[in-house]
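[09:14] KT: can someone run the structure on this one? pasting the chain below
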Amino acid sequence: MVQRFHVGARLSEMAVHNGTVYLAGQVPDDGSLDIGGQTAQVLGMVDRLLAEAGSDKSRILMAQIFLADLADYDGMNAAWDAWVPAGSAPPRATVQARLARPEWRIEIVVTAALAP
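[09:31] RB: done, structure tokens below
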């Protein structure tokens, strides 16, 4: 069975299937923030969605990070490093991409395991 959360006309924010949580790309609500602020905001969204599904950031299986500008890489990493639990850093890819809105500097896609 597939469970979908926060279902809209175009996408669901999250789906759970067979013990795995799949998040849609999470983007900041406040496009006026710098990369540190936008990253922290998006990571907070990831935390809330994973908690809603019964998981948490220590159970992330894979993260994909899209940056509008690779010049933001160090600023994003500062926020990421402060957020990710020691010893639980997941496999991760970070690429530059043109995002759907010009004010967005970051988008993060996460796949995680459900807590037992």
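[09:33] KT: thanks! The CA atoms of residues 44 and 83 lie 9 Å apart.
[09:34] RB: yep, looked fine to me
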